[in-house]
Amino acid sequence: MTLVIAVSAMTMTAQDNTGKGNTTSWNIRLSAGLNLGGTAPLPLPREIRAIEGYSPGMNLSMECSAERSIKESPWGIRWGIRIETKGMSAKARTKNYHMEAWNTDGTGKVQGAWTGKVKTAVSNTYLTLPVVAVYNINSRWNVSAGAYVSWLLKGKFTGAAYDGYIRDQDPTGEKADVICAQYDFSNSLRRFNWGLQAGGEYRVREHIALFANLQWGMNGIFPSDFGCVTFEIYPIYGTLGVTRLF
Amino acid sequence: MVRKNIFNALLLVALATFASCIREEAPNAECDILGIDEGWLELNRDIITGTPVIGNHSVDITVKEGTDCTSLEPLFILTPGAHITKDSISDNGPSGITQYYTTYAEDGIWRKKYTVSFTIQALINASQVFSFENFEVESSGRYNVWFEVDGYGTRRNIWASGNAGYAFLGIGKSPMDFPTATDHAGVKGNCIRLTTKDTGSYGNLFNMPIAAGNIFIGEFHSASAMGKPLKATRFGLQLVPGKPLYLKGYYKYSSGDVFTDKHKNEIPGRTDECAIYSVLYEVDPANFEKLDGSNITTSERIVMMAEIENPGTPGAWTEFRIPFKAMNGKDFDPHRLATKGYAITIVASSSKDGASFEGAVGSTLYIDELAIEWETEELK
Fold first, then answer.
1. Is the pLDDT confidence value at B50 over 80?
2. Which DSSP string do the residues of B53-68 spell out, in sequence order?
3. Of B121, B142, B161, which residue constitutes the final position of a domain?
4. Would you tell me how many other CB atoms lie within 10 Å of the CB of residue A153?
5. Among A11, B199, B266, B354, which is most exposed with the fewest C-beta within 10 angstroms?
6. Residue B21 lies in a domain
7. What backbone torsions phi and psi does residue B291 show, to the nearest 5 degrees?
8. pLDDT tens digits, B266-281
9. Rounded CA gap, B7 and B9, in Å?
10. Chain B, 300-359: which have a CB under 8 Å from a chain A CB?
């Protein structure tokens, strides 16, 4: 990671070279986009019966990157630094969803089967450092793939279980109706995330390109020993945006 | 414009991805007896009194005296996809029969044992003392339940507590961890120990920061425990043999150090108090609706009530004998008694205002050898 930061810093001071035909150049790029996706368990557990609502939220992504092309080759490498938000809210209906949740004071664990509705709102702002390999298909199109590391600057993970019932321990246990139970796990989010990224870019003007990326989180947003959410939840987001090429 | 279209396109893709992730519905994992077929109940209306009480492992049906229960084959309403088998029957002679069933869930994994009892209604025996010697660990193995046993060995599930509600929190792992527990140091044999407990962060989540220990004649409706806790404690059964005169028994009590309100804020200067009382109230025999936590001391249906006033904090076993007083200007009516128009409950709690989640964690009430003295000429 230190290496990535060092390299990114170096590229900031690199010479700006606008000659797009020059294959050994450094190119500085500024991108703005919108993140759209889900922070969700994968695969969706069978107990999730329906997604009843989804709202992508307004997730901005601002990136500054530097690209180094390899001489007389379609290949290049791109380092970036970006500030981005990955968020969404979703409503789901579950049936006999096995849940376990520790009391925050550690005195006990609510454990049972939940049938009812769940709504979750996530909004996490990250400082992200991507490194991708770039392949230039032609003068207009390029595709890229690589990895990123993210540091959570500000996180929100809240929600509620409502309109349903919980059965104590398992589907044969005592049944209790739940009107609404709210939760807020914002303070338990993992700071460090990493994942894989792939995308494509289309140059519409000399200095303007449109791009689409997919970012696939490889570690869950909660620490693996976090008892309140017992399955891994991954951020999987697509970014759509515009790049200004210098 | 292009960007907006692409944005919309991506939104569609995202939604489609989500939708396609929904996997085939799993077969039902539940296997409940949800109810008893209305038609069957109607056919047997002349022998059944009251409404069947359906628990998570039991169905209690009260039948009239002299009913031949051996041929009763109730028609159950089950969780969709579940099926049921009758395993055995035990004939309890003059007090009724008990049928044992197993229900199987559609998924073939989960199953559950049910005890279905047809019981000839037996009133509280005039000389009956409630000593709390009959108890067992319920099926999940974590907490105790108490019952009475009649002269024929038939179990009478007349006692209820909030333990099933506390169980949801996962804090209690063995019977002694629960607000309502057995203690071996009774006046005679065992007694009941009621303790006001902290409910942890999940209790707070449901605005129930404490759980007072309670025991009462009636039914605990755990389905209401989280959403409408006052509706979970359903007090009273139609077991009245006559006019009650005195509520008596033994108790000792210590109050917890810090009294808190329903938001768990300390109320300085306030001391916790226990509650021990009995209420006799009017019921419509054709449609028995129990009083609950919201109205057990305030309902206009209350006819008589006996309550320890200023119970204090006696550290040693203290005997009490308190008179029933007429309430709401009502007189006890033997004719109403003859038509099962009364229900009675005895209630004990380690925090008097525990129902509204006010009390002091650590308050502990011990009770034993409870009894009601009845006016003898009312007895047949």
1. no
2. EE-SSEEEEEE-TT--
3. B121
4. 13
5. B266
6. no
7. -75, 155
8. 999 999 999 999 999 9
9. 5
10. none
